[in-house]
Please model this.
Amino acid sequence: MRRVSIFGSTGSIGQNTIDLIKRDLDAYDVVALSGAQNIKLLAEDAIALNADVAVTADKRRLQDLKDALAGSSVKAAAGQAALIEAADRPADWVMSAIVGAAGLAPGICALERGATLALANKETLVCAGQLVLETAKANDTRLLPVDSEHSAVFQALIGEDMAAVERVIITASGGAFRDWPLDKLQDATLDQASAHPNWDMGQRITIDSASMFNKALELIETREYFDVEPDQIEVLVHPESMIHALVGFRDGALMAHVGPADMRHAIGFALHYPTRKHLPVERLDLAKLGSFSFRAPDELRWPALRLAREVMDRRGLAGAIFNAAKETALDGFISGRIRFTDMADVVSEVLGRDKDTDGLIDAAMTLDNVVRADHLARMAATAVIETKTG
Ligand code: NAD
Ligand code: MG
Model:
């Protein structure tokens, strides 16, 4: 039996992972599940999957979790240290599906333990790409991408020589505001930004799709994961979200990955890798779909893409600072303190002020430095938000 753990099991990726595992439960020994506020779901799943331990990230919810697990053999735990302890339990395959930089430490710990890390948490590579890849190498294990675009690139590269790769194209649906007049964007509401035209995902990544901060993170993720130069990576707006990525080779060929907008494909691919097993996803009827459309991304509409290029050129801890500023700006938008279009301004200001983050942008990539850079960038972003809200 394969020992598996799922961090962020109560979220959108976590639930899709559980859906696949439940279909073949006898094949898996579930070690740990983790969530935060949705204690009921965390406990229900932990009992149904007979996990060894269920962890809530929120220490104050420990008693609630114990109550929900009463009468079962699942152990309850809470807080950051408990998350790390759970990630340190031996497992063969670990799904990293916590949202935000909070997913970094458990992921690194699982790699140090020698688990294969299925990586949905894109922030891990954005904040600490080099460190995470080195950790995987040092422990003779691997990362498997669980972002639709990166899974697609990974699949298009199977059997190929990286030296023959000319460019990598990741597609973007364009999110909720791809067709809005530019001058209306500043008035976009939280509800409008939280409605994705194609994908059903957690709220934070859905808003990041509307602002293209999600694609910005994915550009950086592509550079880190596939070790390609920034000028080899392109974003292509493809409103149908059926082609997830394309790889261009030096002979002019483009290999595209086509599939339905269903994350169970990328999750299932990582779960069963290197074999391909049957997956319960829609089979596309291309004749019925008729046509696909494409357009170039508009950097006026989506300034996040330009910011990602700055981060890719700068490297070092720029990704950690960028992500922390972005998470703080997103909190500011969700709580109604800043406007939708202010998010990019906040991130741009924090990136431009090296002294506010103690010059860490060029510091060595250790976990301590990443954590400090993240902390200082959140403070700097909070200060910028305060100037905007008066
Ligand atoms: P979600 O909001 O639906 O779920 C997030 C999970 O993380 C939940 O289990 C929640 O309890 C947990 N969590 C939240 N804050 C936490 C904290 N501070 N500490 C520990 N746990 C915490 O998010 P999602 O849409 O499933 O996305 C998860 C990750 O996968 C994100 O990094 C996202 O960018 C990435 N991703 C998601 C999709 C998708 O289709 N949903 C696609 C590609 C990549
Ligand atoms: Mg994606």
The longest helix spans residues 367-389. The pocket of nicotinamide-adenine-dinucleotide (ligand 1) is lined by residues 8-14, 35-36, 57, 97-99, 102, 120-123, 147, 199, 201-202, 204-205, 263 (CB under 6 Å).
